[in-house]
């Protein structure tokens, strides 16, 4: 398989693989699966490679790391104290890319939602997120 990930995507993917945060992502996925929702993973043909794609419902879901994607008002999303300018610029680039991917997806007729990492890392939050994403996907 060709390596088409940017360094940012790769480091994000790596941080997911290394950290325990792969686990909550799997929990979210299996909970949605139990609800009868069928998805495809990391579809390369779509802008931003959404983490979950629900073709039957015309919906995509990104599972975003709070740090890399700068979740608003989230304690995980603090800009590091050293190299601040570097990080600010990096985050600004990430956000611009996120927004443009979402705009492109919507222009293609997809509905787009984001599940934030901090919203799936404990059981209570995960349950709420599963409910929210299920409602979103079914368009209810
Ligand atoms: Zn967060």
Automatic annotation (TrEMBL):
Gene3D superfamilies in the record: VSR Endonuclease
Transmembrane segments: none
Pfam families from the UniProt entry: Vsr (PF03852)
EC number: 3.1.-.-
EC class of the enzyme, as a word: hydrolase
Example of a GO MF term: endonuclease activity
Domain of life: Bacteria
SUPFAM superfamilies: Restriction endonuclease-like (SSF52980)
Family that this chain belongs to: Belongs to the vsr family.
Primary role: May nick specific sequences that contain T:G mispairs resulting from m5C-deamination.
Name this protein carries in UniProt: Very short patch repair endonuclease
